[in-house]
Amino acid sequence: MNPARDTQINSAASRKRVVDLLARATRSELEDATAKLDPPPSYSSIRGPETGLVMVRGRIGGGGSPFNLGEATMTRASIRLADGTVGHGYRLGTDRRAAMLAAVFDALAQNDAHSRILEEGLLGDIEARIAAEAEQSRRETAATKVDFFTMVRGED
Questions:
Q1: What is the pTM of this model?
Q2: Residue 39 phi/psi, 5° resolution?
């Protein structure tokens, strides 16, 4: 086993989780977290924010052959903090401000000091909201479940 490689894999998985959560954050969650930063981070834009289309692919039954489902609008942004850390933000839709804020928080999350604060605050709140929405959806779906059964009448 290579400890350096394991650290890279864990770091990549952690960064993927952060970028995913930031992409699913609401604009108000990002704005509220920005207001709590003291002092606000100094950054410059590297790319964007820019809006374009991405191809959405699907699979029948989750495991079938992939097929092109259609296109979706996506916005992305890349920034560089004053210390040189680069962050990227992505989100479905055309909210350029939210994509920019997501990029800022991605860059901040790469710093251990900021990472702990973000984990306890913003990222934890996003995960809790997503879990609550999934639970609500599960309950709504379960309420519409119909159990079908066949009863043998004994005439055969």
A1: 0.73
A2: -80, 160
What are the tokens at 60? 């029948």
- The SS3 of residue 92 is strand
Q: 145: helix, coil or strand? A: coil
Quick one: pLDDT at residue 99?
A: 92
For residue 136 the two structure tokens come to: 């609500």
Q: Are 103 and 89 in contact (CB under 8 A)?
A: yes
Give Cα 13 distance to the centre of its chain. 13
Q: CA triplet 15, 17, 20: central angle to 5 degrees?
A: 110
CB atoms within 10 A of CB 95: 17
Phi/psi-derived region of residue 29, left when phi > 0, alpha when psi is between -120 and 50, beta in every other case: alpha
Structure tokens, 131: 């879990």
Nearest to 25 by CA among 123, 114, 121: 123
Q: Is 99 left (phi over 0), alpha (psi -120 to 50) or beta?
A: alpha
Residues of the chain with pLDDT under 50: 3-9
Closest CA to 22 of 120, 123, 121: 123
